[in-house]
Amino acid sequence: MLNYLKRSKFLDRVRMVIRAKQYAYSTEKTYVSWIYRFIIFHNKRHPKDMGNSEISEFLTYFGSGKKGLCFYPKSSFKCFSVFI
Fold it and tell me: pLDDT tens digit string along 38-84?
C-alpha cells in the first residue's frame, strides 16, 4: 500500500491541494486514505474516468459494513465532494 501511495502523482496533487488549503495533517491522511481505497476498489482506475455512480457504489459497499471496516460517512462524503 505505501509504495502505491508514494508513487501516485494524482495523490501527490491531492496532498498539495490539501496543504495549500491548510487542512490538518490528520485530515490529509484521512482524505488520501479514502481516495486510495476508492482507486483500489475500482481496480486502479483513475478517478477522472469515474463519476457519481462509482462513488455511490463505493460508499454503499463500505457503508454496508463489509470486511468489518469502519465507515465515516461525513469525512468520506466531504473528501469525495472536494477531490473526486
Answer: 888 888 888 888 888 888 888 777 766 655 445 555 566 666 666 65
How far apart, in Å, do the first and last CA atoms of the chain sit?
A: 20
Delineate the domains of the chain, giving CATH numbers in brackets: 2-83 (1.10.150.130)
Beta carbons of 19 and 28 less than 8 angstroms apart: yes
- Mean pLDDT over residues 25-41, rounded? 88
Task: State the angle between helix axes of 73-83 and 25-41 in degrees (0 to 180), rounded to the nearest 10.
Answer: 80
Contacts of 5 (CB under 8 A, 6+ apart): 11, 32, 36
Place of cell 477522472: 48
